[in-house]
Amino acid sequence: MMRPLTPHRPPGVRPRRPAALLLATALAAAAALGVGGDASAAPAPAEPSAATAAAAADAFYLPPSPLPAGSPGDIIRWRKTTTAPLFGGLPPAKADAYQMMYLSTNNTGKPIAVTGTVFVPQGRVASTLPIIGYAPTTHGIGDPCAASIELVAGQDTDLININDAISRGWAVADGDYEGMGTPGDHTYVVGRVEGHTVLDSVRAAQRLTVAGLSRTAPVGLWGYSQGGGAVAWAAQLAGSYAPELKLKGTAAGGTPANLDVVARQLNHNVGFAYLMMAASGLNAAYPELKLSTYLNDAGRAAITDLQTTCVNQALVTYAGKQISELTVKNPLDQPNWQARVAQQKLGLIRPSQPVFLYHGLQDEFIPFSQAVQLKKDWCTLGQRVAFGTFFGDHISTFLAGEVDAENYLAARLAGKPAPSSC
Q1: Closest listed residue to residue 102, CA positions, set 138, 140, 148, 143
Q2: pLDDT digits (tens, 9 = 90+) for 206-247
């Protein structure tokens, strides 16, 4: 097998975190995502607090009806916000933070409202800052799990990456995705709409006057897991959907590039909850799939439960389950489902700018093989793709790949030539 290449780390970059802090953040990430050890033997991690759950009913998240006229990325409303220390420990980096609601488009091109958070590093001239479009990891599919809500409650492990981006002197646009916080079901892992919401979060950050960011700022995209898929789709769509953005490069880790391959991995797996969320997400985007007609009573109860349960508890509750336990007929065997799953496959469109893909060799949720195939597909289309391999599982690679992802983006934002593993 061809040995994947990892981008060269330029001399003089900041050192990695002290071991104690890295261990603390690793434990926080693993606990929050319900991973690490025997899930059935461990108590369930804490779910969002009552205050967090109440925030999901905040009128801020209720879009006006009808939606205002405008273009994707236009601001509907905004407010100043704060970010709590992660699980009471890791403090947020010093930045001004704003929650925003902005226009985007769904997978069929229909206007939708999406929420998110913009971070502007303090002590810097905002108009000179690069902008990172950051796509959240899987938080769940219920409104209380939206990234903008969990950041306020100190329960969003993506703060680890967001903090480091802010410390680099980058503004961060962190969108919530369709149906997270806002009404309607979350279209989990539906590629086109996730790509739209990422690109429109950057547009919205640029159009949020109080933030002071430039509409000609260089832009990088970064995400892991669900976020890796979202920024990979954004990279594929940027040239046609948001050509005015000065996109320089994308870092996508733990990327679900082929949902059929991922689904086979997740069935009867500790990460089975992800498969259930994906089924719900596809059904939300394509109602003609009629997921409910394939579910038995246990399956219908599980889908209902996921609307209010965030990813940590969901992983514990449904670890090791399999499709046959929750269905009267497997929807993934049906031609209409197979066609919609196939439409989410990455690698058929050339990204407009270079990409860094990184993946764990022992990823227990998203097979390494399909990430290798994505790299090959994009290389075949003529784009420069750097590929980083890590000797770890899904969660450890989230942490281990952080610095390489940042260094890759820093080099692209600085205009340096992109490395390639093609």
Answers
A1: 148
A2: 999 999 999 999 999 999 999 999 999 999 999 999 999 999
CA distance 382 to 272: 35
Amino acid at 48: P
Torsion angles phi and psi, residue 176, rounded to 5: -95, -10
Q: How far apart are CA 40 and CA 18, in angstroms?
A: 31
Q: How far is Cα 354 from Cα 378, in angstroms, rounded to an integer?
A: 10
CA atoms within 13 A on the CB side of 268: 3
* E strand or H helix that includes residue 409: helix 402-413
pTM for the predicted model, two decimal places: 0.89
Question: Identity (one letter) of the amino acid at 133?
Answer: G
Phi and psi at 180, nearest 5°, equal -105, 110
C-alpha–C-alpha distance, residues 90 and 93, integer Å: 9
Q: Please name which of 342, 188, 395 lies closest in space to residue 274, comparing C-alpha atoms.
A: 188
Q: Quick one: how far is CA 213 from the chain centroid?
A: 23
